[in-house]
Design goal:
The chain contains seven helices and 15 strands. With 276 residues, the chain is an alpha+beta fold. Strand 3 and strand 4 form a beta hairpin. The termini are far apart.
Length: 276
Amino acid sequence: MKPRLTPRELRAALPRVFDALRESDAIILRHWHALKVSHKSDGSEVTQADRAAEQALRRRLAKAWPRDAVLGEEYGGELARTGRSWLLDPIDGTASYVLGIPLFGTLVALAIDAEPVLGFIRLPAMRETTYAARGFGCWLKRDGERRPRRVSVAAPRALSAAQIGFTSIVQSDLARRPGPWRLANLARSVGRLRLVGDCVQYALICRGVLDGGIDFSIKPWDLGSLVSCVLEAGGSIGDLHGKTDAVLARTSLVAASSSRLRLAICRQLGGLEARR
């Protein structure tokens, strides 16, 4: 049986994580238009807000659950194979954040025995949170609203009618240095392909606005939240090769409103052999 939180554990966790997200929001939005940007070894942007927000999240989680492991984008850590681990990405979508585009978010997830059981997609600039816990559904909470509402993916749709989001052309055939993934092929096959990007597209999948989303490269601190929310909203997840096991070990992500659509996306991108 896969691990999950009890109702009592979930009731205790929700207000604590929301409090932590409010603190990280304040840091992220305060720095948004007064940034000092540097670059990591892989060329991606990082700001003082990324680091300060992760430190704030770590302090809050350590105070509430001092024995839990933590793995975050900016300060590393451990994903425990047994027991509890928190996964943190303080600003998912830093490339948008530094441009002043509000399509960025904060990801917080809890894994038990390396299986995601609780996830939050917080969109500070949009003032909303999509969150889910295994067995308890996926929910959307907008700031100022008294109660969250349960959300679910769109009804199954053929690839030719589907609206699909993606994060980047890097590693695709459209990149300056072409990669293996046939994004141009997918673009000719879908109803609409949009560069939505990062965690925002998965929040939109959860509420049925988009039918699918693609990340050619992804890390465990992103996967925990995204997988939890999409699955509890009734969607399907896997990597570009169609594999769905050991989700936190995957290095790519395809999410969709149905497994049939997810596999059709993988096939068009070249991750699966085309059916004859």
